[in-house]
Amino acid sequence: MGLKINWMWVARVLKVGALLGFLLPWVVVSCGDQLMMSASGLDLVRGTPQVADTKVPPDMLGSAWWATAAAVVIVIALVAGIVIRAQRLRAWGTVCASVAAILLLGCGMMQSIDKLQSKVEENLSGRGAGRGDAEVAQVLAGFFGGREIITIDVKGGFWLVLGLLGGAAVAGVGAAVSRKPVALDDRGGAV
Q1: Per-residue pLDDT averaged across 106-117, rounded?
Q2: What does the alpha-carbon distance between residue 143 and residue 138 come to, in Å, rounded to a whole number?
Q3: Contact at 8 Å (CB) between 188 and 85?
Q4: What is the chain's mean pLDDT, rounded?
Q5: DSSP H helical segments within 84-186, as ranges?
Q6: Cβ count near 96 (within 10 Å)
Q7: N or C: which end of the chain has fewer CB within 10 A?
Q8: 127 has pLDDT over 90
Q9: pTM of the model
């Protein structure tokens, strides 16, 4: 008698863990030892990063539509995993949703970091000042104190969410390729 693993429950737990990971810090922007901005996944979804100086624009990382879209994909995958009765369809849906959320988060974070770096370079070089960014350039110059160094740290919360979603995708594959279908009760849970 071996251990029976219900891969769909493993995937559900990992997706719930990924949603809870939105509460952890995801990104910190600093100059030297001075904090400029920090944001959790939830802050990015709501569009309210924690800004150290009120003159720094909260949209400094750009639009975080990707974080909102990833959270919506995860929630839809959780609901669909409960509503859909066919095991293999649920399993492959979990795989697709997890991979989609990973791609949204990974590409979105890279795009936001690139946008921030470009904005800082434009403002420090004076190229962006003609487009109404003079105040931002002044604030950034004050932060940098003549140095052109900015540190963007992607924190463990972001990587944890990606890892949990990767685990959910693997569990979905496990459920899809398992030889014996899991029996369901009236509520769609495993028997």
Answers
A1: 88
A2: 9
A3: yes
A4: 81
A5: 87-125, 134-144, 156-177
A6: 14
A7: N
A8: no
A9: 0.78
